[in-house]
Amino acid sequence: MKHIFFLLAGLVMIPPTFADESEYKKVRDKVFWLKLYNQDYETFYCGKPKKAGEKVTLEHIYPAAWIAESLKCTSRKSCKHDKYREATSDLHNLWPAEKRYKTSRQSLPFGTILENNPYFKNDSCDFERTLGKKAIVEPRDEIKGQVARSLLYMIHYYDLPHKDMLPLLVKWHTEYPPTPAEIERQDRIEAIQGRTNEFVKGNI
C-alpha cells in the first residue's frame, strides 16, 4: 500500500505509446463495441446481463469533465489537447453503464455512504448517491476494486488529480482484488490498445 502512495505521489509516468489515437466516439463505435464488448456482457453499476450487440451508454470512470478541467479547458467541446483526446478514449477507463446510472453519477467522486440507501428505490441495484454540493457515489461492492483500479490507472498514467479519493481507492484496490473477468478484460484491452493497467496485473 505504501508503495502505491509513493508511486502516485511521485508521479512516475509511463511513456505514452499512442497505440490508439482515435477520439472517444470512434473508439466507442469502432473499438469498444466491435472488439472489446462483442460478446454477452454485464452492465457496470448493476451487473445486468446484456446480449452481444445490445448497446448501453459508456461511463468514463474518471470523468471526461475532470480531464478537461485538469487541462484548464473551459469545456469538453473546446478541449483540443491531444492528452484530452487520448485520455477520454482510453479503454481502461470506459465501462458499459445504463443511462440513468451514468446520468446520476455525472462527475461526482466516489466515497463511502454510511447508510445502505439505494438511490433508485424501485431497483435491486446497490447504487448509492448522496445529494448536495458535496454529493458522492458509492457503487456496489462487486465493482469497487474495478472502480479503484480504473481511477488509479488514469491518475498515474495521465498525471491527473485524484480529487481527494486516493486513500479510499487504495483501500478498495486492496480489499477487492482483480477477478478473473477483470484480468481478462485488461488483457483484451492490452491486445487492442497496446497498454497495460499495471494495477490489474499486480505490478503496482
Explain what the structure shows.
The chain has about 200 residues and is mainly α. About 45% of the residues lie in helices and about 10% in strands. A two-stranded antiparallel ribbon has the order 1-2. It has a two-stranded antiparallel ribbon with strand order 3-4. A two-stranded antiparallel ribbon has the order 5-6. Mean pLDDT is about 90; it is low at about 10-20.
Short description:
With 204 residues, the protein is mainly alpha-helical.
Keywords:
204 residues, mainly alpha, two-stranded antiparallel sheet, 9 helices, 8% strand
Query: What portion of residues is helical?
Result: 40-55%
Number of strands: 6
Would you tell me the overall average pLDDT? Answer: 88
Determine the N-to-C terminus distance: 9 Å
Can you lay out the helices and strands and say which pair or pack?
Elements: H1 2-10, H2 24-36, E1 41-42, E2 49-50, E3 57-60, H3 64-70, H4 82-88, E4 94-97, H5 99-105, E5 128-129, E6 137-138, H6 141-158, H7 166-175, H8 180-193, H9 198-201
Helix pairs in contact: 6-7
